[in-house]
Design brief:
The chain is an alpha/beta fold and 296 residues long. It has nine helices and twelve strands. The strands form four sheets. The chain has a six-stranded parallel beta sheet, sandwiched between helices. Helix 3 (70-91) runs parallel beside helix 4 (125-140) and helix 5 packs across helix 9 (271-295). It is globular. Bound molecules: NADP nicotinamide-adenine-dinucleotide phosphate.
Amino acid sequence: MKILIAGARGQLGRDCTQVLGAAHAVTSFDLPDMDITVPEQVRRTLEQIRPDVVINCAAYNRVDDAEEHREIAWRLNAEAPGVLAAACRKSGARLVQLSTDYVFDGQRPPPGAYTEEDEPHPLSWYAQSKLGGESAVQQGCDDWIILRTAWLYGRHGVNFPKTMLHLALRDPNRPIRVVNEHYGTPTWSWRLAEQIKVVIEAGAQGLFHATAEGYATWFDLAACFLAALRVPHRLEPCRDVDYPTRAVRPANTILENARLKKAGLNILRDWRADLEEYAARYGTALIAEARAGLQK
Ligand SMILES: NC(=O)c1ccc[n+]([C@@H]2O[C@H](COP(=O)([O-])OP(=O)(O)OC[C@H]3O[C@@H](n4cnc5c(N)ncnc54)[C@H](OP(=O)(O)O)[C@@H]3O)[C@@H](O)[C@H]2O)c1
Protein backbone atom coordinates (compact mmCIF):
# COMPACT_ATOMS: atom_id res chain seq x y z
CA MET A 1 0.00 0.00 0.00
CA LYS A 2 1.08 3.59 -0.61
CA ILE A 3 0.63 5.53 2.61
CA LEU A 4 1.00 9.25 3.21
CA ILE A 5 1.50 10.48 6.77
CA ALA A 6 0.75 14.10 7.71
CA GLY A 7 2.19 15.57 10.92
CA ALA A 8 5.05 13.07 10.68
CA ARG A 9 7.36 14.85 13.16
CA GLY A 10 4.97 14.39 16.09
CA GLN A 11 5.12 11.46 18.49
CA LEU A 12 2.51 9.33 16.70
CA GLY A 13 3.62 10.49 13.24
CA ARG A 14 7.16 9.26 13.85
CA ASP A 15 6.04 5.89 15.17
CA CYS A 16 3.57 5.46 12.29
CA THR A 17 6.35 6.23 9.83
CA GLN A 18 8.53 3.50 11.34
CA VAL A 19 5.88 0.84 11.99
CA LEU A 20 4.05 1.21 8.68
CA GLY A 21 7.26 1.89 6.75
CA ALA A 22 8.47 -1.63 7.54
CA ALA A 23 5.65 -3.12 5.44
CA HIS A 24 4.38 -0.39 3.11
CA ALA A 25 5.55 2.45 0.88
CA VAL A 26 5.32 5.34 3.31
CA THR A 27 5.86 9.01 2.48
CA SER A 28 5.93 11.33 5.47
CA PHE A 29 5.21 15.04 5.54
CA ASP A 30 5.25 17.77 8.12
CA LEU A 31 5.49 21.54 8.13
CA PRO A 32 6.51 23.35 5.99
CA ASP A 33 6.34 20.79 3.14
CA MET A 34 2.69 19.95 3.62
CA ASP A 35 0.66 22.32 5.75
CA ILE A 36 -2.69 20.56 6.09
CA THR A 37 -4.49 23.87 6.53
CA VAL A 38 -3.53 24.88 2.96
CA PRO A 39 -5.83 23.12 0.46
CA GLU A 40 -3.56 23.76 -2.52
CA GLN A 41 -0.56 22.11 -0.81
CA VAL A 42 -2.65 19.12 0.27
CA ARG A 43 -4.18 18.66 -3.17
CA ARG A 44 -0.81 18.94 -4.93
CA THR A 45 0.84 16.46 -2.56
CA LEU A 46 -1.90 13.87 -2.99
CA GLU A 47 -1.77 14.26 -6.77
CA GLN A 48 1.98 13.71 -6.67
CA ILE A 49 2.04 10.72 -4.28
CA ARG A 50 -1.30 9.10 -5.21
CA PRO A 51 -1.58 7.33 -1.83
CA ASP A 52 -4.03 4.54 -1.02
CA VAL A 53 -4.23 5.76 2.57
CA VAL A 54 -3.62 9.13 4.25
CA ILE A 55 -2.99 9.16 8.01
CA ASN A 56 -3.48 12.52 9.69
CA CYS A 57 -1.26 12.69 12.78
CA ALA A 58 -1.15 16.52 12.77
CA ALA A 59 -3.11 18.41 15.39
CA TYR A 60 -3.15 21.35 17.76
CA ASN A 61 -2.73 19.44 21.03
CA ARG A 62 -2.04 22.16 23.59
CA VAL A 63 -5.30 21.80 25.46
CA ASP A 64 -4.94 24.90 27.66
CA ASP A 65 -3.51 27.17 24.95
CA ALA A 66 -6.40 26.23 22.66
CA GLU A 67 -8.74 28.21 24.95
CA GLU A 68 -6.94 31.41 23.86
CA HIS A 69 -5.76 30.43 20.39
CA ARG A 70 -9.18 29.34 19.27
CA GLU A 71 -8.85 30.26 15.64
CA ILE A 72 -5.67 28.29 14.98
CA ALA A 73 -6.87 25.30 17.02
CA TRP A 74 -10.10 25.25 15.01
CA ARG A 75 -8.29 25.63 11.69
CA LEU A 76 -5.94 22.73 12.42
CA ASN A 77 -8.22 20.36 14.34
CA ALA A 78 -11.63 20.99 12.76
CA GLU A 79 -11.10 22.49 9.29
CA ALA A 80 -7.89 20.83 8.07
CA PRO A 81 -9.34 17.29 8.39
CA GLY A 82 -12.05 18.53 6.00
CA VAL A 83 -9.36 19.73 3.60
CA LEU A 84 -7.73 16.29 3.74
CA ALA A 85 -11.11 14.58 3.36
CA ALA A 86 -11.93 16.55 0.21
CA ALA A 87 -8.53 15.73 -1.31
CA CYS A 88 -8.92 12.04 -0.36
CA ARG A 89 -12.37 11.89 -1.93
CA LYS A 90 -10.99 13.39 -5.13
CA SER A 91 -8.02 11.03 -5.32
CA GLY A 92 -9.79 7.90 -4.03
CA ALA A 93 -7.64 7.54 -0.90
CA ARG A 94 -8.84 6.34 2.49
CA LEU A 95 -8.42 8.87 5.32
CA VAL A 96 -7.37 7.89 8.85
CA GLN A 97 -8.09 10.64 11.37
CA LEU A 98 -7.01 10.64 15.03
CA SER A 99 -9.37 11.98 17.66
CA THR A 100 -9.53 12.14 21.42
CA ASP A 101 -11.15 10.77 24.57
CA TYR A 102 -11.81 14.41 25.52
CA VAL A 103 -14.86 14.49 23.23
CA PHE A 104 -16.68 13.07 26.29
CA ASP A 105 -17.63 15.12 29.35
CA GLY A 106 -16.36 12.52 31.81
CA GLN A 107 -19.47 12.60 34.03
CA ARG A 108 -19.70 8.81 34.12
CA PRO A 109 -18.37 7.47 37.43
CA PRO A 110 -15.14 5.44 36.98
CA PRO A 111 -14.50 2.68 36.08
CA GLY A 112 -17.47 3.13 33.72
CA ALA A 113 -16.10 3.29 30.17
CA TYR A 114 -17.36 5.16 27.09
CA THR A 115 -18.02 3.20 23.90
CA GLU A 116 -18.43 4.44 20.34
CA GLU A 117 -22.22 4.44 20.92
CA ASP A 118 -22.00 7.15 23.62
CA GLU A 119 -22.89 10.71 22.78
CA PRO A 120 -19.91 13.12 22.81
CA HIS A 121 -20.18 16.27 24.91
CA PRO A 122 -16.90 18.20 24.75
CA LEU A 123 -15.98 20.51 27.63
CA SER A 124 -12.99 22.41 26.20
CA TRP A 125 -12.26 24.24 22.95
CA TYR A 126 -9.63 21.63 22.09
CA ALA A 127 -12.23 18.87 22.48
CA GLN A 128 -14.80 20.83 20.51
CA SER A 129 -12.32 21.38 17.69
CA LYS A 130 -11.37 17.67 17.59
CA LEU A 131 -15.04 16.72 17.45
CA GLY A 132 -15.40 19.25 14.62
CA GLY A 133 -12.60 17.34 12.85
CA GLU A 134 -14.53 14.08 13.22
CA SER A 135 -17.58 15.66 11.56
CA ALA A 136 -15.51 17.20 8.77
CA VAL A 137 -14.04 13.79 7.92
CA GLN A 138 -17.40 12.03 8.03
CA GLN A 139 -18.98 14.66 5.79
CA GLY A 140 -16.00 15.23 3.52
CA CYS A 141 -15.32 11.73 2.24
CA ASP A 142 -16.82 8.23 2.15
CA ASP A 143 -13.81 6.07 2.94
CA TRP A 144 -12.65 7.04 6.43
CA ILE A 145 -11.43 5.67 9.75
CA ILE A 146 -11.56 7.73 12.93
CA LEU A 147 -9.61 6.44 15.92
CA ARG A 148 -10.21 8.06 19.30
CA THR A 149 -7.17 7.63 21.50
CA ALA A 150 -5.97 9.05 24.82
CA TRP A 151 -3.06 10.18 27.01
CA LEU A 152 -0.46 9.44 24.33
CA TYR A 153 3.21 9.04 25.15
CA GLY A 154 6.03 8.00 22.86
CA ARG A 155 9.76 8.10 22.29
CA HIS A 156 9.58 11.43 20.47
CA GLY A 157 7.99 14.77 21.23
CA VAL A 158 6.57 16.15 24.43
CA ASN A 159 4.47 14.06 26.79
CA PHE A 160 3.43 13.71 30.42
CA PRO A 161 5.78 10.85 31.46
CA LYS A 162 8.75 12.79 30.07
CA THR A 163 7.68 15.88 32.04
CA MET A 164 7.50 13.79 35.24
CA LEU A 165 10.98 12.41 34.56
CA HIS A 166 12.36 15.91 34.05
CA LEU A 167 10.86 17.10 37.36
CA ALA A 168 12.12 14.07 39.31
CA LEU A 169 15.66 14.41 37.96
CA ARG A 170 15.70 18.15 38.64
CA ASP A 171 15.25 17.57 42.37
CA PRO A 172 14.29 14.13 43.75
CA ASN A 173 13.41 15.69 47.11
CA ARG A 174 11.07 18.34 45.79
CA PRO A 175 7.44 17.16 45.94
CA ILE A 176 5.73 16.72 42.56
CA ARG A 177 1.99 17.15 42.98
CA VAL A 178 -0.06 15.14 40.49
CA VAL A 179 -3.83 14.98 40.06
CA ASN A 180 -5.19 11.69 41.34
CA GLU A 181 -8.85 12.02 40.45
CA HIS A 182 -8.97 12.08 36.64
CA TYR A 183 -9.33 8.66 35.06
CA GLY A 184 -8.24 7.62 31.58
CA THR A 185 -5.92 5.24 29.78
CA PRO A 186 -2.30 6.03 28.93
CA THR A 187 -1.60 4.76 25.42
CA TRP A 188 1.82 4.14 23.85
CA SER A 189 2.09 5.79 20.44
CA TRP A 190 4.16 2.86 19.11
CA ARG A 191 1.41 0.37 20.01
CA LEU A 192 -1.20 2.69 18.54
CA ALA A 193 0.81 2.80 15.31
CA GLU A 194 0.70 -1.01 15.28
CA GLN A 195 -3.06 -0.85 15.84
CA ILE A 196 -3.43 1.59 12.94
CA LYS A 197 -1.50 -0.84 10.73
CA VAL A 198 -3.85 -3.68 11.67
CA VAL A 199 -6.95 -1.57 11.00
CA ILE A 200 -5.69 -0.35 7.63
CA GLU A 201 -4.61 -3.78 6.47
CA ALA A 202 -8.01 -5.22 7.46
CA GLY A 203 -9.71 -2.62 5.27
CA ALA A 204 -11.84 -1.46 8.22
CA GLN A 205 -13.96 1.68 8.05
CA GLY A 206 -15.74 3.83 10.61
CA LEU A 207 -15.31 5.19 14.12
CA PHE A 208 -13.24 3.21 16.66
CA HIS A 209 -12.01 3.72 20.19
CA ALA A 210 -8.32 2.82 20.39
CA THR A 211 -6.72 3.09 23.82
CA ALA A 212 -4.71 0.63 25.90
CA GLU A 213 -6.62 -1.63 28.29
CA GLY A 214 -7.30 -0.79 31.92
CA TYR A 215 -7.31 2.68 33.45
CA ALA A 216 -5.23 5.03 35.57
CA THR A 217 -5.07 8.47 37.10
CA TRP A 218 -2.31 10.90 36.14
CA PHE A 219 -0.78 10.10 39.53
CA ASP A 220 -0.81 6.34 38.76
CA LEU A 221 0.86 7.01 35.42
CA ALA A 222 3.63 9.14 36.94
CA ALA A 223 4.23 6.66 39.78
CA CYS A 224 4.33 3.63 37.48
CA PHE A 225 6.72 5.32 35.03
CA LEU A 226 9.20 6.63 37.60
CA ALA A 227 9.17 3.28 39.41
CA ALA A 228 9.85 1.45 36.15
CA LEU A 229 12.86 3.73 35.54
CA ARG A 230 13.98 3.43 39.19
CA VAL A 231 14.30 7.20 39.39
CA PRO A 232 14.07 8.58 42.97
CA HIS A 233 11.15 10.97 43.37
CA ARG A 234 8.60 12.45 45.75
CA LEU A 235 5.21 12.23 44.11
CA GLU A 236 2.22 13.59 46.00
CA PRO A 237 -1.36 12.93 44.91
CA CYS A 238 -3.50 16.04 44.68
CA ARG A 239 -7.05 16.99 43.77
CA ASP A 240 -8.29 18.61 40.59
CA VAL A 241 -9.02 21.85 42.45
CA ASP A 242 -5.41 21.98 43.66
CA TYR A 243 -4.20 22.17 40.08
CA PRO A 244 -6.32 24.73 38.22
CA THR A 245 -5.98 24.81 34.42
CA ARG A 246 -7.42 27.11 31.76
CA ALA A 247 -9.26 24.30 30.00
CA VAL A 248 -11.79 22.10 31.78
CA ARG A 249 -10.73 18.46 31.60
CA PRO A 250 -13.18 15.58 31.86
CA ALA A 251 -12.87 13.57 35.09
CA ASN A 252 -13.30 10.15 33.51
CA THR A 253 -12.51 9.31 29.91
CA ILE A 254 -11.89 5.60 30.14
CA LEU A 255 -12.73 4.27 26.66
CA GLU A 256 -13.79 0.78 25.68
CA ASN A 257 -12.46 -0.43 22.31
CA ALA A 258 -15.81 -2.06 21.68
CA ARG A 259 -15.78 -1.95 17.88
CA LEU A 260 -12.17 -3.05 17.48
CA LYS A 261 -12.93 -6.03 19.72
CA LYS A 262 -16.15 -6.86 17.91
CA ALA A 263 -14.28 -6.83 14.60
CA GLY A 264 -11.51 -9.03 16.07
CA LEU A 265 -8.95 -6.27 15.42
CA ASN A 266 -7.99 -5.08 18.90
CA ILE A 267 -4.28 -5.52 19.64
CA LEU A 268 -4.08 -2.93 22.41
CA ARG A 269 -3.14 -4.36 25.80
CA ASP A 270 -2.80 -3.36 29.43
CA TRP A 271 -1.35 0.15 29.84
CA ARG A 272 1.09 -0.94 32.57
CA ALA A 273 2.62 -3.65 30.40
CA ASP A 274 3.13 -1.15 27.58
CA LEU A 275 4.53 1.53 29.87
CA GLU A 276 7.01 -0.97 31.30
CA GLU A 277 8.09 -2.02 27.81
CA TYR A 278 8.45 1.64 26.83
CA ALA A 279 10.59 2.29 29.95
CA ALA A 280 12.72 -0.81 29.30
CA ARG A 281 13.24 0.07 25.64
CA TYR A 282 13.95 3.79 25.97
CA GLY A 283 14.64 4.42 29.68
CA THR A 284 18.38 5.01 29.32
CA ALA A 285 17.94 7.37 26.39
CA LEU A 286 15.06 9.23 28.05
CA ILE A 287 17.06 9.77 31.26
CA ALA A 288 20.11 10.96 29.28
CA GLU A 289 17.97 13.40 27.29
CA ALA A 290 16.25 14.72 30.41
CA ARG A 291 19.61 15.23 32.15
CA ALA A 292 20.98 17.05 29.08
CA GLY A 293 17.88 19.25 29.11
CA LEU A 294 18.55 20.18 32.76
CA GLN A 295 22.05 21.36 31.91
CA LYS A 296 20.88 23.84 29.29
N1 LIG B 1 -1.01 13.68 22.72
C1 LIG B 1 -2.05 13.13 23.32
O1 LIG B 1 -2.06 12.88 24.54
C2 LIG B 1 -3.30 12.81 22.53
C3 LIG B 1 -4.45 12.35 23.19
C4 LIG B 1 -5.59 12.04 22.42
C5 LIG B 1 -5.57 12.19 21.05
N2 LIG B 1 -4.44 12.65 20.43
C6 LIG B 1 -4.46 12.84 18.98
O2 LIG B 1 -3.50 11.96 18.41
C7 LIG B 1 -2.92 12.56 17.23
C8 LIG B 1 -1.40 12.54 17.33
O3 LIG B 1 -1.00 13.29 18.48
P1 LIG B 1 0.54 13.53 18.85
O4 LIG B 1 0.63 13.62 20.33
O5 LIG B 1 1.39 12.61 18.10
O6 LIG B 1 0.73 15.00 18.25
P2 LIG B 1 2.05 15.92 18.24
O7 LIG B 1 3.21 15.18 18.82
O8 LIG B 1 1.66 17.22 18.87
O9 LIG B 1 2.34 16.12 16.70
C9 LIG B 1 1.54 16.92 15.90
C10 LIG B 1 2.32 17.19 14.62
O10 LIG B 1 1.52 18.01 13.78
C11 LIG B 1 2.38 18.95 13.16
N3 LIG B 1 1.63 20.10 12.65
C12 LIG B 1 1.23 21.19 13.33
N4 LIG B 1 0.56 22.03 12.50
C13 LIG B 1 0.57 21.44 11.28
C14 LIG B 1 0.07 21.80 10.00
N5 LIG B 1 -0.62 22.95 9.82
N6 LIG B 1 0.25 20.97 8.97
C15 LIG B 1 0.92 19.81 9.13
N7 LIG B 1 1.43 19.41 10.29
C16 LIG B 1 1.24 20.21 11.37
C17 LIG B 1 3.33 19.31 14.26
O11 LIG B 1 4.46 19.97 13.73
P3 LIG B 1 5.29 21.02 14.63
O12 LIG B 1 5.91 20.20 15.71
O13 LIG B 1 6.25 21.60 13.68
O14 LIG B 1 4.27 22.00 15.17
C18 LIG B 1 3.63 17.94 14.83
O15 LIG B 1 4.65 17.31 14.10
C19 LIG B 1 -3.54 13.96 17.16
O16 LIG B 1 -4.67 13.93 16.31
C20 LIG B 1 -4.01 14.22 18.58
O17 LIG B 1 -5.07 15.16 18.64
C21 LIG B 1 -3.30 12.97 21.14
